[in-house]
Input
Amino acid sequence: MGEPAGIGGELTLKAWLGRKTQNLPVFFAIDDPSRLSELAYGLGWTVPLVEITDPSEATAIFAQALPVLPIFLGLHIKPGHPDPDTVKAVIHSIKTGVELCVTGKAAAIVTNPIHKHIMHQGGFAFPGHTEYLASLLKLESHEVMMLACPGLRVVPVTIHVALTQAIATLTHDKIVEVSRITAQALTQDFGIRNPRLAIAGLNPHAGEDGDMGREEIDIIAPAIQQLQALGLDAQGPLPPDTLFHEQARSRYDAAICMYHDQALIPLKTLGFDSGVNVTLGLPIVRTSPDHGTAFDLAGTGKASEKSLVNALLMAAEIANNRAR
Output
C-alpha cells in the first residue's frame, strides 16, 4: 500500500496499465480497493479491480484486471494530505505481504513509499521499512539496504540515523558483516559469481593517511583486510569523491558506503526515476521504489512509475535467481 495520501496508489495503477509494454510479472496490490478505484476514476484511467482472497487467484485475473487483496482504511483519503489514522492499515499491509512471502504464497514483496514522520505519529516504532522487515523476520544479523540503478549498486553501512550517530557507531564488525551479506546477495540474487566490492572511505580523500581522520586506518582498512582474508574481492578505502564516475564504476559490482547520503546522492543523481531499493540478507525477496511519497504530485497522475516498474522487474529477477 505505502502512504495512502502519497503517489504509491497511482504508481500501482500506472504499472498495471503498462503491464504488457513493460513485460511485467503478475502482481497484486495489498490495498484498499475503494481508494484505488477512486484514484483511477479521478485520473480518468480505466483500471478494472478485482478483489481476491488468496494470491493464487491473481494469475487468472491479471491480464484483464488489477487483483487487489483488500486492506480497508475505513476513512476517505485526500491525495497530498496524510492522516496518522491510516498508519495501522499501512503496517498491516506490510506485515501481510511479508507473511505471504514467508508461507510461499507470494514470490516477493514490493513496498510503495511510506512517510516516516506520519508513520511515527501513528505509532510506528521503526526508522523505516528495512528495520521493520528485519524485526518481522527476527533477523539476528544487521539489516542491509542496497540501492540499484543501471550502472550502479550502493550499500550504506549505517542507514537511517543522524550523521553524527552514523560516524559514532561505525565499526569494523559492521563493515565486515554488511560487505559479506552484500557479496552473498550479489551471487545468490544477481548471479555474479565473483563479486567485486569497492569500500569507500569516510573522510575526504579517504583520510589522507590520517591527516583528515583516522577512521580509515583504525576501522575501515582492518575490515577490508579481514574481507580479503575471507576470500572476497574487496578494495579500499577509496576516496568517495572519485568513486562514482563512469570509469570507476566499471571496476566494481557494488560500492560499500559508510553512511546514507554517501550512497544515495550518487545513486539518485544517476537514476532518480529508475532506482530500486533492495533489502539484502532476508529469507524473502523485498524491493521498493527509491523515492518518497511526493505529496505535491499525489493525485495528479504525473509521477513516474519507472522506479516501481524496475522494482517489480528486479523482484522477479531475484526470485527467479533464488529459485534456480
